[in-house]
Amino acid sequence: MKRIIVGLTGASGSILAYSVIEQLLALGHEVHFVTSKLGEKVMAYEMEDHFEKIIGKFMSSPLFIKYDQENLFAAISSGSFPIDGMCIVPCSMGTMGKIAGGIADSLICRAADVTLKEKRPLVLVTRETPLSGIHLENMLKLTRYGAVIMPPVPAFYNRPKTVKDIVDQTAARVLRTLGIQSDTYPIWSGNLTELGPLGGFDE
Question: Nearest Cα to 123, choosing from 96, 155, 158?
């Protein structure tokens, strides 16, 4: 069992966080969840339900621990609290900028700051396009200090049939970066014949 922090900010793509949490719990890992107020609103809007009802599915699990974004006394704000990694899904440019600048004025930013200083895996699923020079410089800076920048770029070699297929595969890639293998992450073998007929492809 691994102990993973999942942060949710107000960028678009909150369904990715939902899938990450769902897969982590299904695999028996402990999830420490914290969201910004805007993150709650975006999730409710994009998933078309009340935030409490959406997250309510996970609240009954003893492996799911939810924190208040303003509680800087929370366990995950301390480097002495052992975790195996953190992901922010999705990660807004504002949150990324604060982390890059060492501003730890919220629990998400503080937990990310701690994750970096303790040399633990930090995955930022950044959601913005097009990217400005400021965004790119912050991404480069954080990469140099050990963070992994992972925009939710969908793969198509697994031939997704639905939006859920794309979401789950992207979430599984986040887990993979944290050292966790999920069945929804297809491993490429290099053998095209495994995919079946490739009619219509040009040489």
Answer: 96
